[in-house]
């Protein structure tokens, strides 16, 4: 492995650095974007139960805000639960944009890595071919062994760049889709809570409570 890195030249080091960063981001996003962490089950049912028995106070709202991203969105609406549906929705949308931005954290970096690593590999290819033609100009093509260094650098950097870019792009698309799915789910749960707080959909929430 060390021989391959040396044969690839200096551009192998930024490619390796991109690989390490990409791996760390992928692992962190898998951990952070777990659905039970972002959108806990039956959270709206729990809020409705607190409201029903008169236990929905500021302390519970504060704890709800700290519990999960969905809890943060719901808490924004609960703070204004005595106002109209429009006011609740506006406060939820404002916090929801912030939460969605947090869910996208590091994905731009992952997308950037997916874009630049093939270019780094291409640059390594160009540098390697320049070395090959420099040797050909100076010594001719009589001894193929003198061309091997430049050819190796060209091929290795290209392969390394693509090896980092392909999985980075795949996971960037995957996590972007998961963020969209989680955002839509939070919007649906928040809308359900607004309707419950204004006397709608209680029967649906009651059914959820009975099936828990």
List the helices and strands and how they pair.
Blueprint: H1 2-8, H2 12-32, H3 35-38, H4 43-53, H5 58-67, H6 69-78, H7 85-103, H8 107-139, H9 148-197, H10 202-211
Number of strands: 0
Measured as a percent range, the helix fraction is over 70%
Total of domains: 1
Largest sheet: none
Structure commentary:
- The two termini are 54 Å apart.
- This protein has helices at residues 2-8, 12-32, 35-38, 43-53, 58-67, 69-78, 85-103, 107-139, 148-197, 202-211.
- Helix content is 83%, strand content 0%.
- With 212 residues, it is an all-alpha fold.
- The protein has one domain.
Descriptive tags:
single chain, 212 residues, mainly alpha, 0% strand, rod-shaped
